[in-house]
Amino acid sequence: MPAADLALLLTALAMLALRGTGMVVARALRPEHPFILWATAVSQAVLAVFVVLAVLAPAGAVATVPLPARLAGLAAGLLAYAALRGRLLPALGAGLLALAGVRALLGG
User: Fold this and answer.
1) Which residue from 83, 86, 88, 95 has the highest number of Cβ atoms inside 10 Å of its Cβ?
2) Domain range annotation of the chain
3) What pLDDT score was predicted for residue 25?
4) pTM
5) Helix axis angle, 88-106 relative to 67-83, nearest 10°?
6) Smallest Cα–Cα separation from 91: which of 76, 102, 69, 70?
7) What is the mean pLDDT of residues 13-30?
8) Over 80: is that where the pLDDT of 108 sits?
9) DSSP codes, 12-24
């Protein structure tokens, strides 16, 4: 087995093991348990870092989208999320529409 395939397999197995462990632990702990609160805070912080990196220092295809379009998409998504009381899919759609609209206006 090539090294890349083995690395992918081991990564997938580790992810599944961690996910299974998380499900077992989550059943045993209440939502207000300090460990659950910590895990929630860490996951939100990691997501925030990924969003900031995607907007300010993108790689790949996202790098071809102009910064004003990325910022408009982020702002529209956040505003829609707040206005729609936490509904993620419509907020994602609003952000995507804003990004595409500003990109089209800029000719990108």
Assistant:
1) 95
2) 1-30, 32-106
3) 82
4) 0.68
5) 150
6) 76
7) 89
8) no
9) HHHHHHHHHHHHH
> CA 100 to CA 108: how far, in whole Å?
9
Residue 80 burial (CB count, 10 A): 19
> Tokens 């090539």 appear where?
2
Tell me which amino acid residue 80 is.
Answer: A
First to last CA, the chain: 43
Q: In this model, does residue 22 exceed pLDDT 90? A: no
Chain position carrying tokens 């997501």: 47
How far apart are alpha carbons 34 and 39 in whole angstroms? 9
Q: Hey, is 108 helix, strand or coil?
A: coil
| Contact predicate 74/51, CB 8 Å | yes
